[in-house]
Amino acid sequence: MQVIHDEKDLRFYIEFEEGEAELTYTYPEEGVLDLDHTFVPEPQRGKGVADKLVKASMEFVKSKGYKFIPSCPAVDTYVKRHPEYKELEQEI
């Protein structure tokens, strides 16, 4: 299961026969990703797919020295379970 980062379309995704799982984002300001929506096809749910997408996004944010906004509930939940990424969250 490979996560692909499409910087042009502002998303991380994984391809499956049933379609794509994706985590989309926007840049509300320079150096800040608003991680706003996660979708996983029904047959792939409950298999850790969303976690793989979120982890890939966290590693991208970290590697660039960026911050993120966890607008998507899946992202917020992941960060609560993985507090090592909490320091990357944009202060409001």
TrEMBL record:
Keyword Transferase carried by entry: yes
InterPro entries named among the record's database cross-references: Acyl_CoA_acyltransferase, Gcn5-rel_NAT, GNAT_YJDJ
Keywords, comma-separated and alphabetical: Transferase
A Pfam family recorded for this sequence: Acetyltransf_CG
GO molecular function: transferase activity
Domain N-acetyltransferase: 4-90
Keyword Transferase appears in the UniProt entry: yes
Protein name per its UniProtKB record: N-acetyltransferase
Taxon lineage: Bacteria, Pseudomonadati, Bacteroidota, Cytophagia, Cytophagales
